[in-house]
Amino acid sequence: MSDTTVTKVNAGTSRQGDQGQIHLASGKDVSMRLWRDRAPTDNKPPSSHDYEVVGYVIAGRAELEIEGRTVTLEAGDSWVVPRGATHRYRILEPLTAVEATAPPEEKGGQDG
Question: Whole-model pTM?
Answer without folding.
Answer: 0.87
